[in-house]
Amino acid sequence: MTNNKNLKLKYTKNNVKDTISAYLFLSPAIITFVLFVAGPVVLTVCYLCFTKYNIITPTEFVGLDNFIKLFDYPVTGTIFKNTLKYVVVLVPLHVIIGLLLAIGVSKEVSGRLKYFFRTAIYFPSVVTTASVAIAWTYLYNKDFGVINYFLNRLGADSIPWLISTKWSIPAIAIFSIWKFVGTPFLYYLIGIQNIPDSFYEAATIDGANKLQTFFKITIPLLSPTIFFVITTTFIGAMQIFEEPFLLTNGGPGDSSRTIALFIYEKAFKSYQMGYASAIAVILFIIILLLTLIQFSLQKKWVNYDYE
Amino acid sequence: MKLKKILISILVLAVVLAFAGCGGSSGNRPDKDDKVSSENTDSNNKNEPVTIKLAIMGEGQNKENTQKILDKFNQENPDIKAEVQYVPVTSGSGWNDFFTKIKTMVAGGNPPDLAFVAIEGIQMFVNLGLAVPLDEYFDKNPEQLKEAKDDIHPKLQAPFIVNGKTYALVCEWNNVVLHMNTKLLEDAGLELPPQDWDKDMFLDYCSKLTKTEGGQKQYAVAVPAYYFGFSSWLFNNNASVLNEDMTKCTLNQPNSVEMFQFWQDMVNKYEYAAMPEPGVDDIQRLVDGQIAMGSWGRWPTLTYINNDFKDAAVQYLPKFKSKNVIYGSGGFCVINGTKHPYEAMKTAVWTAGEYFVKNYYSAGSIPCRKSVAEEVIPKLGIPENHELYYKSADYAKPVESPPAYAEIANVFDRYLSAVLTNEMSAQEAMDKATEEIDNVLEQSPIK
């Protein structure tokens, strides 16, 4: 009994020591997270969205006024619709193009070319968005842009990429794909590398062709990665900001304005922090709900059991 | 258990700290009724000069030159060390971004001592208690105010006198005139138009200056797609963004709609005007010969100098229903929260003096002092017909800049681009813009 007690005490002491060390190592990250992420989120959801606040003067409680104002604002519908358009266009394109590129590079390319393609596809993801966006505004220019130059050479008319309400979202989507497809590509590449070769060998012995292998082995075994890419791309597309901000500033008119850009404008151009917080809360709720739906649906198609 | 309690305490403390950062306390915030001591400062060491930081919008390419100019002040006033602090802004966002950054610096308890404030921001600065009036300084130094008043046009100074208090002495101003590439005029067989030219003559010039050669289009004119520039065209058609006391939007009035329709046609029907493209500098396009005319102030002279471009001339905008000239002026305001208000005021007043104005505004803006403008502008020599820069102050009208200017300009820009891209008719866009701007005026937290 005494021995047991001593053992327990010793174990507890070691445990406490380890736990303290763990928390000490974690504390900078935890404090930073709480101060700059969790704290502001709680503050926004519980307090700021119900106030009038312009940074300088003290906050003033206004109840639900900010939410009512958002629903009364005539352009709200356009902004939400635009964001939805980005989601509808960007999520499938990122998921499909990323997957095709990953399969192409891992299965169809060999040797040094593989390294070249991996680097070339992922490279735009690590470049500062602001710097490449400037270059793309020149590429997209109607009168002297390189893209229109080639279109003209092919006999097509110049496209007013960034200065037409019809073309602003496609232009931003093309840029976004070029800039960010490297991230899902990388996830897929890792996912594909983790699929055991024995599955493919068995399929080959059974006489499966490439298409059958792709749909019966690669896709099911890659489904956790696909689900992860869909979820993160969806959240990213709902919060899309940099691309319209840098390429079109939400224009022409409101044609490419998104919810995140609208939040920025209200907070940092009109100094309406409370109003901006209310919009952020609504965006947060929408993303949360849709992500929960995705998580509940994934049980039906995501396969975690292949080991 | 104990550990959990400690961890929870740390987390709670961190959340409380985050709340405190944005809470209702007015610890760092300016009080509108703050009294400024005109006595010397809380400096502990009387031998050490106090540092006065001047915030200027920009990337700081001219930092060395600006500091060199300020060093003259530092030599004359060994108890003060004036230092320039450039505040970079997002491309295209201009004053809005700069003012937001100054506000954030004030809210964060780290304000500059002085900030350059243009007419567009002065009402907001005063309204939020961000600017300190200079009257106490002038009470002690009345001769400096008199000397400045004798040389600065009262019209340019007027926007900076709010409720009878002087918040800055203006040091620069700009009007909007039509810049022209004289080489392109010459190629088209045109001369500099007369001062009293009108809409028909302008359209005739536009038709002769628009051409396509070797697949490259040369446009007659750049669209004045910014609040200050477009307002100048509205003024010339007896229209404006707001009514006289700036309480209602008047953009949907017939004269205003007519001007928006005019520019919609210039882009889409006549194709004389280049649709503004993101990231494209129209001034550079004028220098490069891709555009023949553009509506700007004196700031293109900086691009002209950088490109050694001399084929430029200016003329008043063509007359439509009326003939007007718009202006915007600016000066250094003392920012509430400065630890050295008296020294800051002294520095602010010096920036409107002859030495600073002559050296800092040799190009870029029109010096506020008539004597300096008449010396500096002809000395630069470009553009041709530069007398317009200092002769128009007598009859120029200020750009409309209510306290909620930032948000109004934002609405204005959105609907202007909707008109230019033909997304909406001019009337529909202006009806919507008017509704939104009226809402802004009614609901804006800054009144």
What does this 3D model show about the protein?
The complex is a heterodimer of chains A (307) and B (447). Helix content of chain A is 74%, strand content 1%. Chain A is mostly helical. In chain A, helix 3 runs parallel beside helix 7 and helix 4 packs across helix 8. The mean pLDDT of chain A is 91. The longest helix of chain B is centred in the first third of the chain and has 21 residues. Chain B is globular. In chain B, the strands form 3 sheets. In chain B, strands 1, 2, 3, 4, 7, 14, 15 and 16 form an 8-stranded mixed sheet that branches. Chain B has 2 domains: 195 residues, D-Maltodextrin-Binding Protein, domain 2; 193 residues, D-Maltodextrin-Binding Protein, domain 2, CATH 3.40.190. The chains are: A mainly alpha (307), B alpha/beta (447). Chains A and B meet through helix 1 and helix 5 of A and helix 1, helix 3, helix 18 and helix 19 of B.
CATH homologous superfamily of the largest domain in chain B? Periplasmic binding protein-like II
CATH structural architecture of the largest domain in chain B:
3-Layer(aba) Sandwich
**How many structural domains does the protein architecture of chain A include?**
2
CATH T-level topology of the largest domain in chain B: D-Maltodextrin-Binding Protein, domain 2
The whole-angstrom Rg of chain A is: 25 Å
Q: Please give the largest β-sheet of chain A.
A: 2 strands, antiparallel
Strand order of the largest sheet of chain A: 1-2
* Rg of chain B (CA only): 24 Å
